[in-house]
Design brief:
alpha+beta; two-stranded antiparallel sheet
Length: 74
């Protein structure tokens, strides 16, 4: 089992861990709807990536709505 040989001062320990702090996410604007999204990711608001529609968001929302109504009816 490893045993520390010397006492480490709190300041030294905090300086060593200073790079472990969380960094803010770097967001970019979606060229289609102008909302902030993560780079290299499909926009979850409009469904576009690199100028092409990947997911039809409106159809997806309608499907969810129908599913909720169907489950509420039973």
């Amino acid at each position: 089992m490893a045993v520390p040989r010397h006492h480490m001062a709190k300041g030294k320990q905090k300086r060593r861990r200073s790079h472990l702090a969380l960094k803010p996410k770097k967001l970019s604007a979606c060229p289609q709807c102008k909302r902030n999204i993560l780079p290299h990711m499909m926009c979850k608001f409009c469904g576009y990536y690199k100028g092409r529609e990947i997911v039809n968001v409106l159809a997806k929302e309608l499907k969810k709505k129908e599913k909720r109504q169907h489950s509420a009816a039973h």
